[in-house]
Amino acid sequence: MNKYWSRRLAGLVPYTPGEQPRDGVFIKLNTNENPYPPSPRAIAAMKDSADADLRLYPDPTCRDLRAALSDFYRVTPEEVFAGNGSDEVLAFAFPAFFDPARPILFADITYSFYPVYANFFGIAYKTLPLDAGFGLPVDAFCQKSGGVLLANPNAPTGKAVTLSDIEKILAADSERVVIVDEAYVDFGAESAVPLIRKYSNLLVVQTLSKSRALAGLRVGYALGDRGLIRALETVKNAFNSYTIDRTAQRCAAEAIRDTAYFCEICENVAKTRDKTAKRLKDMGFRVLDSKANFLFISHERKHAKALLRALRAAGILVRWFDHPRIDNFLRVTIGSPAEMDAFCEKIEAFVR
């Protein structure tokens, strides 16, 4: 620890992002990026926005982007918050809704940024173990708490929960905020957005990084009761009023409006996922039922770390987590059909 660091940083373990290689040519199946390009309308908007107006600050309220989102989800603009990626939205949510003295709840195997944020903001938390099949212990999340964080579909398992289970958690304690992180929901899970009018304690967080193929743009958003949205706006304006630049706002709004393209690429990814899952099962892999744009796989005879190294040597990157219960699993992003063919051919040769 550097002597100039604050006490808050002492012992803080930051989030570890997936490898972004600069050397060599790899098939990247390690960071859950979309294999398809962004909407042509989004690209055109990006190019058109590169003009003299870049000298001006962007709209701090993201009015046009929020209008596009409100139209798509059939909510009001006042029920929409836009931020610099869903990670930033989640970061704002911690000081907005969680108090240090009241522990929040999230699963023991889930998005690894949750404990990082909790530790950074000094929020106590309790992890609840997934069951033997990596399913969510819904009844355990119904206990009284300072808040709930729920990824649906879950990461890195890809498993989804039903809206009825989410409703059960919401109704169990109306005095706390339940955040449903839907980064991967568009690939086959049910969104909780239709519940926001019924439950004022529900905040749904989504991103344009996955299903809209805009990971490089960094735009995320939240949908929820107006009171929750005002809280996020208060936290944002205590840090930085201009979190999304002019070009990103225009590009993101057009990506949201291009519904046909969005549906097409989501369907393509889901088809490739299901086809790849079947091929892996035929090879003897355990493949969890995924509703995301990745698969979580394990083989009883070949350890995941050995497969990770073998695949990397063959020019294919996947993700391995050195955590209890899942250290013999690989998370494999769904790439293009050609990329998944190459992946299956290589991994089949290794398990033989």
Helix proportion of residues, in percent? 25-40%
**Low-confidence runs of at least 5 consecutive residues:** none
Continuous helix count: 10
| Helix and strand sequence | EHHEHEHEEHEEEHHHEEHEEEH
Question: Which structural class do the helices and strands define?
Answer: alpha/beta
Shape: globular
The total number of structural domains is: 2
Q: What composes the largest sheet?
A: 5 strands, mixed
Spatial sequence of strands, sheet with the most strands = 2-8-7-6-5
CATH level-four homologous superfamily name of the largest domain: Type I PLP-dependent aspartate aminotransferase-like (Major domain)
Characterization of this structure:
This protein has 352 residues and is an alpha/beta fold. The protein has 2 domains: 8-37 and 260-351, Alpha-Beta Complex (Aspartate Aminotransferase, domain 1), CATH 3.90.1150.10; 40-258, 3-Layer(aba) Sandwich (Aspartate Aminotransferase, domain 2), CATH 3.40.640. The chain is 36% helix and 14% strand. The chain has 10 helices and 13 strands. Strands 2-8-7-6-5 form a 5-stranded mixed beta sheet, with helices on both faces. A 4-stranded antiparallel beta sheet has the order 9-10-13-12. Strand 9 (286-287) and strand 10 (294-298) form a beta hairpin. Helix 3 crosses helix 6. The radius of gyration is 20 Å and the shape is globular. The relative contact order is 0.17.
